[in-house]
Write a structure and sequence with these properties.
Elements: H1 29-32, H2 37-47, E1 51-56, E2 62-67, E3 71-72, E4 78-79
Antiparallel strand pairs: 1-2, 3-4
Length: 80
Amino acid sequence: VRDRGPGTGEQNLTRIFDPFFRASEARDRASGGYGLGLAIARRAVEAHGGVIAAINAPGGGLLISIRLPLVRDAAGAASA
């Protein structure tokens, strides 16, 4: 998932997944949410054996990648 915003400081790329963390102190609940969205996403992804990460995308914006393991049934066939 990529947005077209300004991205975030390199020091924040892992912290943005912490509950209640907001990269900008100027943001508050009225203008910037509660700081829970990416923390919830990380817990959901990790609960399914996956990994979530963030980078500042070349050309601007924040890029969030999610990798989930492929699940195989008893016969060895992959399923989504």
